[in-house]
Amino acid sequence: MSLLIYAESADGKFKKVAFELASYAKKVAESLGTTVTAVTVNAGNVSDLSKYGVDKVLKVSNDKLANFNAKAYADVVKQAAQKEGAKVILLSSTTDSLYMAPIVAVGLDAGFASNVVGLPISTSPFQVKRNAFSNKAFNITEITTDVKVLSLAKNSYGLVESASSATEEDFAPSLNEADFNVKVASVEKTSGKVTIADADIVVSGGRGLKGPENWGMLEELASVLGAATACSKPVSDLGWRPHSEHVGQTGKPVATNLYIAIGISGAIQHIAGINSSKVKVVINSDADAPFFKVADYGVVGDAFDIVPRLTQKLKEFKAQNA
Amino acid sequence: MKILVCISHVPDTTSKINFVNGDSEFDTNGVQFVINPNDEFGLTRAIWFQEQQGATVTVVNVGGPDAEATLRKALAIGANEAIRVNANPTDGFFVAKQLAEVVKSGGYDLVICGKESLDYNGGMVPGMLAGLLDYNFVNSCTELTIEGTSAKVAREIDGGKETIAASLPLVIGGQKGLVEEKDLRIPNMRGIMTARTKVLTVLEPVAANVNTKAVKFEKPAPKSAVKLFSADDLDGLVNALHNEAKVI
Ligand SMILES: Cc1cc2nc3c(=O)[nH]c(=O)nc-3n(C[C@H](O)[C@H](O)[C@H](O)COP(=O)(O)OP(=O)(O)OC[C@H]3O[C@@H](n4cnc5c(N)ncnc54)[C@H](O)[C@@H]3O)c2cc1C
User: Fold this and answer.
1) Is B120 buried (19+), middle (13-18) or exposed (0-12) by CB count in 10 A?
2) CB atoms B238 and A98 under 8 Å
């Protein structure tokens, strides 16, 4: 009984979530007394997976899989699981992995738990803790099937290095022509910027910033921190920022290590989307803004005064600690 | 075109989240239930197809009698008919299995789900349904147009958007973007009156394996109070982020 992960990559490079998943898988494999196999698709050099405890890599290289295709990728993962006799299949919580996870589960007659936040509470019965109710609660879920599929919430486990020497094997699963009835016609990427999905730090602005012309100071703060920028819903509704930056219940979920909210009131719908971020910093002129109730650190004051000075302090800090 | 819109009946986001029976069940006391927001975007898009392209729109929920109020609201917004599968929606697979049965017997060629529901946030049902039906599937869908049996769909990807061509039959997991928020509809008096005369069929569930069980719920540990720094002590903040929180 092996344990299989799908190590997600983009443009031939692994995403950080792939390493987090490998770290997590290593620990789960230890408690199950088994090894970790990773399956990769067009990933190029796979040796980095060895740093995180992967024992074996099944490498799939196929031009037909150049664009993500949920059913075809699900087929790859399914066949890899069958080949390895894997009873536990672990996926990340990226948009793509979450897209294919339920298809993998149905294909393997497996129970599926998404948004898992931590190691299994017990492996027999197999119980995991997951986020529920827009991160306002956890649900302990028991997977009762023989084969189990889990998706790990981003940044919920972290990276844990554990050297191994992974064996590599080429793997050529059979693909189903009909899966390609869903065809990618074009892809538009926001280029040259850290995206919310990949960022460890997000700097976010609300209506308190008064207008789009004031985003320069936020972008500068973000660039010092290597962060992505985001915004509250009214900001994108007003057209100050693109919709792809709107976070919250109806926008993107953010699970970063650090979330800095500037001029955002902290309405429940906004909090729903950022609750699973680890450390929250709030800058707001209103000491009674609800955001302070969920924040770890805060500064009560005018963003136009504080943000430029904070950026300066961080620049100095970075220079000293470079 | 026959469209089926899958509607989840969920607590309004502002609801207090509490549990009863030894933390094994969600406490519905005083909680207002609504159409899951992601489903509402899909429902509104379906009504657009009905009005512009002559599609018929059926809404379906797997749930108890209390969910009928939510289905009636969907009828009041304009759906032609409603189906309730009379069962407690125990997990995503169970729900998908019931919905697959409804799709097969009704011969729907477009099935619109929300990409996830606000209560369990599982994001499981649309993909499982597509898997069970072996239909084409697009998740996190932000745009949808249909000509004949061809669909043009946009989906959100990490850091951008992808445009996809697919053919019917198709399942989508939809979200904000399918319609503009300003185009979401509130039932008017006429809609509410006609909804009363529309057909709401109750079906009994089919057997499904139990793949997962919600054993119990937990609330996050109470948070310690925010640590405030004065506007003159930004060094204190930088220091805390580095030494205490270890995030920079
Ligand atoms: C069904 C539904 C779904 C929703 N989904 C989302 C969602 O996904 N995401 C989302 O964000 N919202 C969502 N909302 C909207 C949400 O309820 C709030 O309206 C929104 O989050 C408020 O945005 P804001 O904090 O930027 O603006 P405001 O409420 O206007 O608050 C601005 C804040 O800025 C502060 N401020 C003003 N000037 C300054 C200054 N100079 N310096 C520092 N601080 C200043 C103010 O004190 C205030 O706290 C949703 C609402 C509904 C009903």
Assistant:
1) buried
2) no
Cα A48 off chain centre by:
19
By the 8 A CB rule, do B138 and B153 touch?
yes
ipTM field: 0.95
Which residue in A181, A268, A297 is closest to B136 by CB distance? A181
For chain A, positions 254-313, list CB contacts with chain B under 8 A: 257-258, 268-269, 272, 278-279, 281-282, 292-302, 305-306, 309-310, 313
Could you tell me if B1 lies within 8 Å of chain A, comparing CB atoms? no
User: Could you count the other beta carbons within 10 Å of the beta carbon of residue B63?
Assistant: 22
SS3 assignment, position A283:
strand
Q: In what order do the strands lie in the sheet with B200-203?
A: A183-189, B160-167, B150-157, B136-147, B170-174, B110-114, B2-6, B56-63, B81-86, B200-203
pLDDT in tens, A291-312: 999 999 999 999 999 999 999 9
CB within 8 Å: B226 and A251: no
> A13-41: per-residue pLDDT in tens?
999 999 999 999 999 999 999 999 999 99
Residue B229 is predicted with a pLDDT of 98
The DSSP bridge partners found for residue B167 are: B150
Cα gap B164→A268, rounded to integer Å: 34
Radius of gyration of chain A (CA): 21
Residue in A99, A127, A138 closest to B127 by CB: A99
Q: pLDDT value at position B223?
A: 86
